[in-house]
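As a warm-up, study this chain.
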Amino acid sequence: MQIAMSWRMMTKLCAILLASLLFHATTLRAVEDEPIALPFGLSWVASHAQIEQLIKNANLHVSQKQNIEGRETWTVEGFDQPALSAVVFYFLGDDLDELELQYRDPKWSLNKFGEFMAQVKQELDLKYGRAEVLAHSRGPEKDVSQTVVGYRWQHPAQCLDLIFYSAERDPLAFRLLSMHYKVQHQPVTVADSGRTNR
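Now compare it with the structure written out below.
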């Protein structure tokens, strides 16, 4: 009778453990499938004109317009968020292709940047699952000490990169934490290019 009881308890424990594992796997899958949301309520279908209107409505200003590798970029400043120094909009044609948030504060120490990055990474891990490590290096480049740390959250249609870059040479230091929201472009295969040429 004691053997039968312990057998029943073991069966019950196994069932609870299995249910728990299934729930964890389902939750993890749901996190991984969570689409990456753009900040400021933006969407990838926003056009030049719509974004220009949003900039005006928010009393921000475009400090620079450039063309970088075939993409038009607008650097926008005037945000009231702590340490958010600029946001760069990248356009491919009339479509928004990338959004870069730049966090820079000359008063922040290296430790302060590290704490801020750890906090942002933790929030993004909870939202989108564990990040892929893109870079983690520190070393001299001539007489400049450089640090690069990078993470990526992947989604079928888009990705989000969190990058910290530091270049230091006493008494000067340049530090920047940036978040890059990017459209994932499908690579063109030989078969695809053959079809489009017909």
